[in-house]
Every structure is written in structure tokens, then in C-alpha cells.
């Protein structure tokens, strides 16, 4: 199956439905590849083709989510192929289970929102970073629960994603203020809690998210404010960075930058890593987890 | 008719228990202490299993869940009642799974693995009828009761590993578990204990009398002196009312201050708490679990001039998991970051909200 066509399929997915998480779009694309693939004769061949496709997708969209979605899919293939050694039957089962998996994870955002909105009390002041669809869903549920709260959003340069978030919140009639990224320390004494999304959740329980999240976490720790992370479970990724430098380069910069620029040292990274010691709780569709519980979940899946 | 008698007898017992719970909250009713409350709850649940009318596991779980909701509504600050209900629900699920022949572990918890490999969106509805289910569940509840009986002893058995000779231990207020713990260590070691009296009820005095009766050198101090004395203390060992799902505590008033003082001096803080005190709640969810009592201990009724200055006393304080070094429970010692694992073994995620 033509790799170019697959990348087109991926891009169309994202364009048609801006709400869909990029990992889900990636998994849908890979499932489509599975359905259309005629050339594979063996499971190993199938895996190789899939790995190539994933690499191509990562070149199109270099976020952590695509990578974690891809790895999850590969794991899914391995687990299914262990049960059904015959390729054609295996493929049938895989396609069935894949559709089911997609159906289940489309519900995960609502599950997360249901868990988290009880932690938002009446009159709370919430600080969030950049634009996250999961956080938006959480705030939407809390507002639907008739809770009154105000939101501060950081502007989140260089793409001003915070302003888009503010617009969306205003459409929901939630009082919102956009603050400068540099004003996080200034505003921290006023807020009651901090909620952020995550592009990836790493094995240690830390998160990879838009640049500026680490600062936010350090500030909230200094002021003793709870720092909550909301993420779906398919964002769990098998990385274990010990510091900012350990995060692989291919995640730090946009896909176009990686291809175009020679010396990456001149570029500004788009993401940073927040260690688990700064995170109070993670809200996922698998339940409310402390950062130490995340590695347990990953071990259950991968080992 | 014998059937109808059993039913009314059962409902009478439940109503009597609910009334006890409502009264027992202030410490003056017949149910004192969480251990007894846990035992009474489990007896009642066993009785319900034996006497109520149910045909499948799903029915029984519905009945127990309803009764559980009423019991927790009667006394929200006593979390042990809810914990025991959840334990019994988990027992029922396990026995049902075992009767069906499926392996219990893989069916129970949500996980990424389960998301990937599950066949259909199968909803486990517990509708199958098994003849032996009742007997199995009652047997399992009896095992739970034996475990409840042995908790204080199991905790006390670990005392010698943690307390060494010539140490200075600090404790706060009165906890039966800590008292048994210290008394067990005193059989073989010589150490000093400093007890903070824990106003306004001053239960520390009773604790000190109890300890000195077995020959432990005890000193009683006022709550205000805790920080001052902390530099000379080797360990702080306290009990708690509830252990929260993130590893934090809900305990008697003043515990948070002790925890902060201990952290300031880098003194280890050890909590002795049996497993039935582990509750799947998180600290921020509901603020209805604070207990308030009348201020007459502090401000006697004879003083009329100060009107609405002090209307109630909060008797619980919440501590965070970073301040705690170790939890000693009847199954051994654990770090606060491991609490999530113990919780997943004791309760099913769907039962967290009754």
C-alpha cells in the first residue's frame, strides 16, 4: 500500500475531525493499512511494513502521541498474533479488535472528564496551559455540573495556542483570562489548582507537554498548589527521560523543522518534560492514578 | 411464616445498626473505635448475605450496595463502614468469577492490556445463578472477620523491627493500634515515649497511663510543645482514622502539624494503620468528611459574652503523602507511593463510588 496515500489518509482524518486525538488518527490509519494490505505473507513482514508506515507518519507529525499510538498498535499486533498463528485469520481478528479498540478509546475523553470534574469545587480558580482538548472537556463537564469557576490560560508562545483555548472557553460561557507565559509566577498565588493535558505520559509518571509546562509545575510546587494532569491511557509511552536533554530530538521539534534545519541547537523546542515529583495526580480513563502507578500500567501492557 | 420473620428481623437489625452509627459518631455510643465498627459492619453484611432474598450475585451486590449507601450516609466521617462494604463486594465478585471458572485477576482491573485484547464490549452482569455461591461468600466473609480480629496483633508483631533501645518515640493522642505496638516492643526493649496530649479531649493522658502501666517511661507534653521537643525525637509513630487513596491521611486534629514538624527535623513519620482503614477517596473530593463537635471543652457554656466566636471545632486534619515515611499495616510495611497497589488488591474500581 502506498505510503503517500496513507499519510494523506492520516492528514484527512485530522482535518475532517479536529477533535480527534492524533494518536487515534494514527491508529485509524494503521488499521486502514491493515485492511488494505495485500502483500504481507507473514506476521514478521506485516510488522516490518507497519514499522515503516509508523516512521513515515512520524515524519508527517512528530508529536509524541503519534509515536505512542504507533507503538500501542504494534503491541496490539504482537498480542493478537500470539493467539492466532495463521495470518489470514489473524488479520480478521485484528481488524475486528482494532475497530473495537477505536470505539473504546473514543469514549476515554468522557471517562477522564467524569473523573476529574469532581475535583473542581465551586468558586475555584484554575490555571491551565496552552490548548488541550481533554482539559476543555473536563471544564465543560464541570460547567455542565453547574459549578462556578474562573480559568486563567497561559498564552503559550510561539503559536499562541492559549488564545484559541480562551476563545473556546468563552463559547462555553466560562470566565477566562489569558496571561503571559512569563506571568505564571505572578498569577500562581491567586489560583487554587492547575490542570494541564499531556502529549505523552512517560514511564516514570512524568509528562511530556507543550513547552512551559515544566515551569508551571515548578511554580505550583513552590506555592503548594495541586498540579493535576489529564490524559487518556493511549498516551502512555515507553520512555524514561531523566532530564530535559533525555527527551529524543524527534519529539522536541515540529516535523517540518526536523527536515528543513541542519543545526537543531538553534531551534526552540516545542515540548518539555515534567518529572513525576511535581505532579499530584493523573486523571486517566483507567482511573485516578498517582505518578507511581503509571509504570505499573505500562508493565502490565508491555511485559 | 419463618421467611417473613427473617426479613423483618434483618431489617430491624439494619435499622438498629444505622441508629448506632448515627450516635456512635460522637464517641459516646456503643460503637467505639474503627475496629469495632468494621467488625459490626462485616457481621451485618454476613447476616444480609445469609438472610436476604437473592438469586444471583448481581442481586446480592445491589442489596449490599444499597445498604452500604445508607450506612455511609448515616455517618460520613466513619469511612471504615464504606471500606468493609467495598471489601465484601470484591469478595462477591471474586467468588462469582471463581464459580464461573474464569481466572479472577485478568477480568477485574481496567488496563491498557485489557483494552487491547478484549473480545467484545462484554458487560459482566453477574446474572448467573450458582448453588454454592452463598456458602462460598459466607466463608470468605468469615475469613475477612478472622483477618479483622488479628489486625492489631499483626501490627504489634512488627514492633521490634522498628523500635530500638534507648530511642525516643513521639506519639499523638490515643490510638489502640499504636498502644499495642509500643507495648509489644516494650517487652524486649527499653525506650522513652513522649505523648502529645491532643487537646481538647486530652486522650493523650489515657495513652500515657496505659503505657506507663507496662513500665514504659512516658512524658506527656502540651500540643504547643511538639515542635520544640521534636529535635530530640528519633521517630514519630501515630495512628490515623483513614488512609486516603493517594497515600495521605485523615487523622485527629494536630496530625498535620506533627507531620510538618517531623519533616522539618527530618524525623521519620510512621503510621500504624490496619488495612480496613484504607479508603478509595482522594482528599479534595468532598469536604463533608470533617467532623465538628461542640466547643464546650474549650469554651465552657458558662461564658456567655463571647457569642458566635467559636461555633465548632474541627477534629480532623488531612496530611499529604510526602510527609509520611512508612505505613505499617497488618500485611507489612509499605511506602506511601505503594498505596495505589494495595487499593487495587482490596477494592474493585467500580465500587469506589458506592
Automatic annotation (TrEMBL), chain A:
SUPFAM superfamilies reported in the protein's UniProt record: NagB/RpiA/CoA transferase-like
Chief localisation class: cytoplasm
Cellular localization per UniProt: Cytoplasm, Cytosol
GO MF annotations in UniProt: guanyl-nucleotide exchange factor activity; translation initiation factor activity
GO cellular component terms, A-Z: cytosol; eukaryotic translation initiation factor 2B complex
Keywords: Cytoplasm, Initiation factor, Protein biosynthesis
Taxonomic superkingdom: Eukaryota
InterPro entries tied to this protein: eIF2B_alpha/beta/delta, elF-2B_alpha_N, IF-2B-related, IF_2B-like_C, NagB/RpiA_transferase-like
Family (UniProt): Belongs to the eIF-2B alpha/beta/delta subunits family.
Subunit architecture: Component of the translation initiation factor 2B (eIF2B) complex which is a heterodecamer of two sets of five different subunits: alpha, beta, gamma, delta and epsilon. Subunits alpha, beta and delta comprise a regulatory subcomplex and subunits epsilon and gamma comprise a catalytic subcomplex. Within the complex, the hexameric regulatory complex resides at the center, with the two heterodimeric catalytic subcomplexes bound on opposite sides.
Role noted for this protein: Acts as a component of the translation initiation factor 2B (eIF2B) complex, which catalyzes the exchange of GDP for GTP on eukaryotic initiation factor 2 (eIF2) gamma subunit. Its guanine nucleotide exchange factor activity is repressed when bound to eIF2 complex phosphorylated on the alpha subunit, thereby limiting the amount of methionyl-initiator methionine tRNA available to the ribosome and consequently global translation is repressed.
This protein's name: Translation initiation factor eIF2B subunit alpha
Species of provenance: Oncorhynchus tshawytscha (Chinook salmon)
Gene from which this protein is expressed: EIF2B1
UniProtKB/TrEMBL annotation, chain B:
Keywords associated with the record: Cytoplasm, Initiation factor, Protein biosynthesis
Described function: Acts as a component of the translation initiation factor 2B (eIF2B) complex, which catalyzes the exchange of GDP for GTP on eukaryotic initiation factor 2 (eIF2) gamma subunit. Its guanine nucleotide exchange factor activity is repressed when bound to eIF2 complex phosphorylated on the alpha subunit, thereby limiting the amount of methionyl-initiator methionine tRNA available to the ribosome and consequently global translation is repressed.
Organism: Oncorhynchus tshawytscha
One Pfam entry name: IF-2B
Subunit structure: Component of the translation initiation factor 2B (eIF2B) complex which is a heterodecamer of two sets of five different subunits: alpha, beta, gamma, delta and epsilon. Subunits alpha, beta and delta comprise a regulatory subcomplex and subunits epsilon and gamma comprise a catalytic subcomplex. Within the complex, the hexameric regulatory complex resides at the center, with the two heterodimeric catalytic subcomplexes bound on opposite sides.
Gene label: EIF2B2
Protein name: Translation initiation factor eIF2B subunit beta
Subcellular location: Cytoplasm, Cytosol
Biological process annotations from GO: animal organ development; central nervous system development
Family: Belongs to the eIF-2B alpha/beta/delta subunits family.
One GO location term (cellular component): cytosol
GO MF annotations in UniProt: guanyl-nucleotide exchange factor activity; translation initiation factor activity
Amino acid at each position: 500500500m502506498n505510503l503517500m496515500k496513507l499519510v494523506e489518509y492520516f492528514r484527512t482524518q485530522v482535518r475532517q475531525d479536529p477533535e480527534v486525538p492524533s494518536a487515534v488518527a494514527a491508529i485509524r490509519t494503521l488499521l486502514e493499512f491493515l485492511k488494505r494490505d495485500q502483500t504481507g505473507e507473514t506476521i514478521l513482514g506485516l510488522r516490518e511494513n507497519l514499522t515503516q508506515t509508523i516512521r513515515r507518519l512520524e515524519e508527517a507529525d512528530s508529536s509524541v502521541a503519534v509515536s505512542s499510538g504507533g507503538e500501542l498498535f504494534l503491541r496490539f499486533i504482537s498480542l493478537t498474533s500470539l493467539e492466532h498463528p495463521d495470518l489470514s485469520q489473524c488479520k480478521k481478528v485484528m481488524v475486528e479488535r482494532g475497530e473495537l479498540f477505536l470505539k473504546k478509546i473514543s469514549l476515554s475523553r468522557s471517562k477522564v472528564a467524569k473523573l476529574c470534574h469532581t475535583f473542581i469545587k465551586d468558586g475555584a480558580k484554575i490555571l491551565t496551559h496552552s490548548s488541550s482538548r481533554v482539559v476543555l472537556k473536563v471544564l465543560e463537564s464541570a460547567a455542565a455540573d453547574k459549578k462556578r469557576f474562573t480559568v486563567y490560560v497561559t498564552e503559550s508562545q510561539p503559536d499562541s495556542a492559549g488564545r484559541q483555548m480562551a476563545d473556546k472557553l468563552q463559547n462555553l460561557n466560562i470566565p477566562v483570562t489569558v496571561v503571559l507565559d512569563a506571568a505564571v509566577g505572578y498569577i500562581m498565588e491567586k489560583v487554587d489548582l492547575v490542570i494541564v493535558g499531556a502529549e505523552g505520559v512517560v514511564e516514570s509518571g512524568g509528562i511530556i507537554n507543550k513547552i512551559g509546562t515544566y515551569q508551571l509545575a515548578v511554580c505550583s510546587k513552590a506555592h503548594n498548589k495541586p498540579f493535576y494532569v489529564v490524559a487518556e491511557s493511549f498516551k502512555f509511552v515507553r520512555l524514561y527521560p531523566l532530564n530535559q536533554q533525555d527527551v529524543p530530538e524527534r519529539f522536541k521539534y515540529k516535523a517540518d523543522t526536523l527536515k528543513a534545519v541542519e543545526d537543531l541547537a538553534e531551534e526552540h523546542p516545542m515540548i518539555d518534560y515534567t518529572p513525576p515529583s511535581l505532579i499530584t495526580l493523573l486523571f486517566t480513563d483507567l482511573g485516578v492514578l498517582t505518578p507511581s502507578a503509571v509504570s505499573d500500567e505500562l508493565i502490565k501492557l508491555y511485559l | 411464616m419463618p421467611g417473613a420473620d427473617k426479613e423483618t428481623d434483618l431489617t430491624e437489625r439494619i435499622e438498629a445498626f444505622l441508629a448506632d452509627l448515627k450516635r456512635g459518631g460522637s464517641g459516646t455510643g456503643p460503637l467505639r473505635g474503627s475496629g469495632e465498627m468494621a467488625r459490626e459492619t462485616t457481621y451485618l453484611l454476613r447476616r444480609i448475605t445469609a438472610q436476604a432474598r437473592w438469586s444471583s450475585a448481581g442481586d446480592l451486590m445491589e442489596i449490599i450496595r444499597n445498604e452500604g449507601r445508607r450506612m455511609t450516609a448515616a455517618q460520613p466521617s466513619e469511612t471504615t463502614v464504606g471500606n468493609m462494604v467495598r471489601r465484601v463486594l470484591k469478595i462477591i465478585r471474586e467468588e462469582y468469577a471463581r464459580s464461573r471458572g474464569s481466572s479472577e485477576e485478568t477480568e477485574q482491573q481496567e488496563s491498557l492490556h485489557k483494552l487491547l485484547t478484549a473480545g467484545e464490549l462484554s458487560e459482566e452482569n453477574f446474572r448467573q445463578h450458582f448453588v454454592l455461591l452463598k456458602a462460598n461468600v459466607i466463608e470468605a466473609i468469615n475469613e475477612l472477620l478472622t483477618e479483622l480480629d488479628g489486625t492489631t496483633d499483626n501490627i504489634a508483631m512488627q514492633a521490634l523491627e522498628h523500635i530500638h533501645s534507648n530511642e525516643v518515640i513521639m506519639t499523638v493522642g490515643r490510638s489502640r493500634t499504636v498502644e499495642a505496638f509500643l507495648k509489644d516492643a516494650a517487652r524486649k526493649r527499653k525506650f522513652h515515649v513522649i505523648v502529645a496530649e491532643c487537646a481538647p479531649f486530652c486522650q493523650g493522658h489515657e495513652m500515657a497511663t496505659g503505657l506507663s502501666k507496662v513500665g514504659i517511661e512516658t512524658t506527656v507534653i502540651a500540643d504547643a510543645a511538639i515542635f520544640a521537643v521534636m529535635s530530640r525525637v528519633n521517630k514519630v509513630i501515630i495512628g490515623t482514622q483513614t488512609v486516603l487513596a493517594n497515600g495521605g491521611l485523615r487523622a485527629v486534629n494536630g496530625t498535620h502539624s506533627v507531620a510538618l514538624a517531623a519533616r522539618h527535623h527530618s524525623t521519620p513519620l510512621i503510621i500504624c494503620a490496619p488495612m480496613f482503614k484504607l479508603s478509595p477517596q482522594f482528599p479534595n473530593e468532598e469536604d463533608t468528611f470533617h467532623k465538628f463537635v461542640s466547643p464546650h471543652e474549650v469554651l465552657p457554656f458558662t461564658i456567655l459574652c463571647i457569642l458566635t466566636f467559636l461555633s465548632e471545632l474541627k477534629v480532623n486534619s488531612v496530611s499529604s503523602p510526602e510527609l509520611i515515611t512508612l505505613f505499617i499495616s497488618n500485611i507489612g510495611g509499605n511506602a506511601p507511593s505503594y498505596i495505589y497497589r494495595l487499593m487495587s488488591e482490596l477494592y474493585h474500581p467500580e465500587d469506589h463510588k458506592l
